[in-house]
Design brief:
2 copies of one chain form a homodimer.
Chain A (H helix, E strand, L loop, with lengths): L26 H10 L1 E5 L4 E3 L7 E7 L2 E6 L5 E7 L4 E2 L13 E4 L3 E7 H10 L2 H24 L4 H16 E4 L2 E5 L4 H8 L3 H13 L3 E4 L3 E4 L2 H7 L1
Antiparallel strand pairs in A: 1-8, 2-7, 3-6, 3-8, 4-5, 4-7, 9-10, 10-12, 11-12
Helix pairs in contact in A: 4-7, 5-6
The first copy, chain A, binds a DNA duplex through helix 6.
Chain lengths: 235, 235
DNA sequence: GAAAAGATGTGATTAATATCACATTTTAGA
DNA sequence: TCTAAAATGTGATATTAATCACATCTTTTC
């Protein structure tokens, strides 16, 4: 029965293994959790959840990236998080069975492992140490949200863009020679929706930052950071 | 020794008792925690912590209200939270000993109960259920931050003000006849710094909302909501 | 209770981004 | 590979809140 504990989607690993919050579990428990998981796939652009949907499962990203966003009064998207492999959405507080307070959409083809709320609650009750792990993750999210708020309330839009680029560097920057290469999973419009400006504005500002030599735009999905110090000065 | 377990600041109660995260503790443990607490007082306007200060204690508010904020690049305050009795600041994740990522200032005379990080860690290790309680509180804060982000990215400033007033109604609205009375702990400037506009702008918008009959301004610290439905329509 | 300090209101002006319109480039699909 | 659709760039203009300046009101302090 060695086969059974493997997850067909997650490249023959325990998919729960990818999630740091489950890292405190022993192999046996990990297998048990993995067996409870139901897999789902989403094509790029597909909606994973709508605000208001009942949130009775935990969604753990096993492959791909998603954007989590709310709509403003004007109908504009405001992105809250970009989540990738190992991240999760869904209600983590015990007993509460509420609804999603945001929308989530696949930025690329995405595989998700889902765990029923009841099953998760049981795992949590039997392994309260998991709550401490969750706290770490949640603490990190809070700090990101606080930073985003600080950025959104800055009137200087180049500063907001610089913050965004610096966070991209942290999350998926690749160092190549003297430069840092960013393969951005977001369209220009998404980037604009992350820092609360219009597509046209971010387009113009990125161009001017290129003219100043701080960055280099390479197609629509790649930005090369030529001068990270300049970015830091802008923030 | 009945006297000793009382907290001199917190009106002769276990001060830890006020904090919902400690509600899972038995009386004996509650006493132990209370004995570990050191009390501090702050006058209105005093700074409780600066961004970057080492955060080696948990600060539990026992009386008064505080504002938690960051500075934008331009030096403008951006308020993140208004916290009151029972709320806390400080690092809740086990083992981590980091620094405050924000500033906090007393909005009125404030009494705080502080618990050393080591002591808190011990309590947490012996009572992992507390982590679940913390998760609830932290979940609530995340939702508030997400809502604030949604509000800040809305260009319609009356909508932002309406959101702010609606959250005030939830937090400290008093129903009187057909109206809701808000005794606001914030100055106009603080309110402006909460929703990311200037003092002048919020002053003008509040006046126009008064002209429309939605609210009534009574001095600087009191706003009477004449028509809550109007506010909801604005958001 | 008076004076000073601080907070708020308000008009005039400026500055910057949103908006609109459309050209151009890139991507995806047959 | 070609074509259609989608995404992006860019100019002109409108709009709106920021800024500046100062009057007025409120609160604090002696």
């Amino acid at each position: 029965m060695e086969e059974k504990k493997n997850c067909p989607v997650c490249e023959n690993k325990y998919c729960a293994n990818k999630v740091s919050i489950f890292s405190v579990l022993e192999d046996k428990e990990l297998k048990e959790v993995t067996d409870l998981i139901i897999h789902k796939k989403y094509k790029k652009g597909q909606i994973i959840c709508f605000e208001g949907d009942v949130s009775d499962r935990l969604y753990i990203i096993s492959r791909g990236k998603i954007k989590v966003f709310k709509y403003t009064k004007e109908g504009k998207e405001q992105i809250l998080y970009i989540l990738s492999e190992g991240d999760f959405i869904g209600d983590l507080s015990l007993l509460k069975r509420s609804s999603f307070k945001f929308n989530a959409e696949a930025l690329e083809d995405v595989a998700v492992c889902t765990l029923g709320k009841n099953d998760f609650d049981n795992v949590l009750k039997e392994n309260p140490e998991i709550a401490l792990k969750i706290l770490e993750v949640v603490h990190d999210r809070i700090m990101r949200l606080e930073d985003l708020i600080q950025s959104l309330s800055t009137n200087d839009i180049e500063a907001r863009i610089a913050s965004l680029l610096l966070s991209f560097i942290k999350d998926f920057g690749i160092v190549e020679e003297d430069n840092i290469v960013l393969n951005i999973p977001l369209s220009r419009e998404d980037m604009a929706n992350y820092i609360g400006v219009t597509r046209e504005t971010i387009s113009r500002k990125l161009s001017s930052m290129q003219d100043e030599g701080t960055i280099e735009l390479s197609g629509n999905k790649k930005i090369i950071i030529k001068n990270k110090e300049n970015l830091k000065l802008l923030v």
